[in-house]
Amino acid sequence: MKETRTRFAPSPTGYIHIGNVRSAIYPYLVARQTGGKFILRIEDTDRARFVEGATELIEDTLKWLGLEWDEGPIVGGPNAPYFQSEREDLYLEWAKKLIKTGRAYLDETAPEVIDEYRKADNAKKVPFLYRNHRPASADFSPEETLEKWQKGIPLRFKSDPKNYEWTDEVMGEMKTGPEVCDDIILIKKDGLPTYNFAHIVDDAEMGVTHIARGVEYLSSMPNYLALYEALNLEHPKFLSLPHILAPQGNKKLGKRDGAKSVTEYKSDGVLPEALLNYLACLGWNDGTEKEIYSKEELIKSFSIDRIQNSGARFDEVKIYWYNGQWIRKLVDEEGVEKFYSRTKDFWPEVAENEPDEYKIKVLSIIYDRLKVLADLKTMTDYFFVDPEIKPEMITDNKFLKKLSETELIELLTLTIERLNDVKDWSEENLQKELNDLLEKSGKKPAEYFSLVRISVSFAPFSPALHQTLSVLGREKTLARLNAVRTALTNN
RNA sequence: GGUCUCGUAGUAUAACGGUUAGUACAACGGGUUUUCAUCCCGUCAACGCGGGUUCGACUCCCGCCGAGAUCACCA
Known about the structure:
Elements: E1 5-8, H1 22-33, E2 37-40, H2 54-65, H3 88-100, E3 104-106, H4 111-123, H5 142-148, E4 155-157, E5 164-168, E6 172-176, E7 185-187, H6 195-205, E8 210-214, H7 221-230, E9 237-241, E10 244-245, H8 262-268, H9 272-280, H10 295-301, E11 312-313, H11 316-334, H12 336-340, H13 356-366, H14 375-379, H15 391-395, H16 405-420, H17 427-441, H18 445-457, H19 465-472, H20 474-490
Parallel strand pairs: 1-2, 8-9, 10-11
Antiparallel strand pairs: 3-4, 4-7, 5-6
Helix pairs in contact: 9-11, 16-20, 17-19
This protein binds one RNA strand through helix 4, strand 7, helix 6, strand 11 and helix 11.
């Protein structure tokens, strides 16, 4: 059986955003599950839109998501180069094949003239088709065309309008009439091919078996089919992927709607596992009620025929849910130490010089509260530096409002005196001591524990109190309790 | 305007002629004798409309309505 070969073929016009990365994920999964090859090809024939550094950004994004490619930039491959701008001669060669069979012609018609044609047709309420305005050069013999062709003269396909029927692996059986077939540009004025022509040549050269791309290409299909036919090529399978919709409205998610780059989620501390999981399952499911898929599980269960054929709305909240699930899953399965290595870039600045062992302890009691890793920055600073004492955070607290200041001070004194005598500072023992203190305080748990928690952290919330105190250590705990008692006394 | 695609709760989806239309996120309420979160339990909430076909239609057919894509020397 023929080897499955899929590809992701982005233009280096900027970062890969969340709305179009799915057309990399699905072909990747298809290639992996069949033991085939996944190719990365850079479609940089539009020099005006080329952005410096975009290729590297694309490469980094794919690597981060775990979509390693078998052929393409960096890794090379049998069909190198993988940049269209470096394959110019190849397209010219293939274009000549079309000229020789009388299926391509030179066209020097000025853009302004073409505009006139378009306006005239629109005025007549006739669909604008360039083939109704073919210039005299369309009738040149192949020899004459070949002889006169030089760089700077665009080349057009000479279409042969007819009905087309084909299968789209996602959308199903398709058919169109001759009215959509036209003379598309093959080679531009600058000597480089258009996407329409280049991708067909490259896919053929590279032996691509499946093309996955956005549904917006669906309406160009008849012209592509005509080209495959004229070039005597068997066409690959087509997967038209429905759009990911912006959170508001019904338009596809684009940079203008604030579609973030994939790398932005990376720097927020979203795990690649979570993002891949979310994106793969947006518009695809395996028919079961499973929600959490690792890359390996996706490779195993993915199937083209279960790709949804309607657009799916982008929902950032769900990404965070997946991320929380993945954080807990990874810590539970691989341990905190291993997970800690992935959090290095997300600690608050004040933690910079703290030992790893201490940060691991902090992580172990706080990880199940994280939505994104960047939450570490805002949720853990009191473990590393004494918090600023703000008495109002105690007196205005919803559980402590009812208590008088003298009462608060008494409770703190009680706590300090007792903890002073505690030698065993383990979580277990502290839990016992704190429960004991709670009983002695005669307060409700929410009241007494809130007082102690806020006194040591001045944070809106923290891990379970016995864990917080244990990690914080005896010295810091007592010092902070004392400091708060003094502050309240002087208030 | 031509051509094409899509249409189940707020969102993502299941169902593939017969179910009280299932699940997850979100929202709301409760529990886990401490906050926040996790975890657990519960509540709210959907087949765009109208015709057929059929004993029976979310499911098949037709029409309508709504939404989107495309009609570049951009991809």
